[in-house]
Amino acid sequence: xxxxxxxxxxxxxxxxxxxxxxxxxxxxxxxxxxxxxxxxxxxxxxxxxxxxxxxxxxxxxxxxxxxxxxxxxxxxxxxxxxxxxxxxxxxxxxxxxxxxxxxxxxxxxxxxxxxxxxxxxxxxxxxxxxxxxxxxxxxxxxxxxxxxxxxxxxxxxxxxxxxxxxxxxxxxxxxxxxxxxxxxxxxxxxxxxxxxxxxxxxxxxxxxxxxxxxxxxxxxxxxxxxxxxxxxxxxxxxxxxxxxxxxxxxxxxxxxxxxxxxxxxxxxxxxxxxxxxxxxxxxxxxxxxxxxxxxxxxxxxxxxxxxxxxxxxxxxxxxxxxxxxxxxxxxxxxxxxxxxxxxxxxxxxxxxxxxxxxxxxxxxxxxxxxxxxxxxxxxxxxxxxxxxxx
Length: 390
Fold this sequence. Notes:
Elements: H1 19-48, H2 51-62, H3 67-99, H4 107-138, H5 143-170, E1 173-175, H6 179-191, E2 199-202, E3 213-216, E4 223-227, H7 228-233, H8 236-251, H9 254-282, H10 295-331, H11 336-349, H12 357-363, H13 369-383
Parallel strand pairs: 2-4
Antiparallel strand pairs: 1-2, 3-4
Helix pairs in contact: 1-3, 1-10, 2-3, 3-4, 4-5, 5-9, 6-8, 8-10, 8-11, 9-10, 10-13, 11-13
């Protein structure tokens, strides 16, 4: 028999959001909206004011008329100006985390992370942009289709390399030293048919008080990462419940399905970009398809498509999260650790337990904490044997 471990008048799902959680999440949403609007406005001004052509000419001058080098200089200045324009909002986000006692990171560490983030973005952006404009020169008609295939290859490669290349740029990791918990988690993965290459402690506490865990990578790079803030404040049963949820994504093949969805969306995006660029060339906004002054227009098309699809993608991701939750309910001995883990995560991360329905639809990739706890309690109740008939 499975018990929920809760008295009849004790319902964790009914715990209301604290004023701090409500105000913190409201501020985070407005910060995201502001960042989106600022980025979109920057792209529009570049195009309408003609500054993108001035920047292109400057890039050609700096590169001594070398096309590929000029593309790099253009991207370098574009991303640098964009970063400087958004640094005020980024710093507000940094201060916001401190205001609600969620961050322990100092200003210098934050600034260094911002620089590293810009450099990583520049490297990855250069690879993609140089590839796209090289293809535009070589195949003005079918560049978008070839670029799409190359983008998907790079996307899958990054999913594989992120745990071993990208994440260590920003955080320290070390093998988990708690052997009993390590073996317990590995055994849980083996029961799910998922081979992992190790269990690692994620030194998140150097920067944040939030807790997190993940099953990252693909194939030979798949590994379990557990933040030290999770290890410090959660029981082994609760950590197992959190990992069981992550394994649910593996069981339901959410990663390959996500790659498939991303493939379809990016195909539509590249097709739409090609149509828009062809129209812009016909209207003599640009000399030719491969005129890299049109890069802000490409970025604007991507931004608009992402904005329009966000509620639909969030709905699909919440469906995936519910599937992963249901796997976790069945994979662990009892659902009480899942329920208490969700409640602790909400409290420690200042997550909203009960957001309004439209906020959940538009902004949340996960179901509300209250819904997840209610689902766990309903699942446990359904497994209880019926009492004797009266």
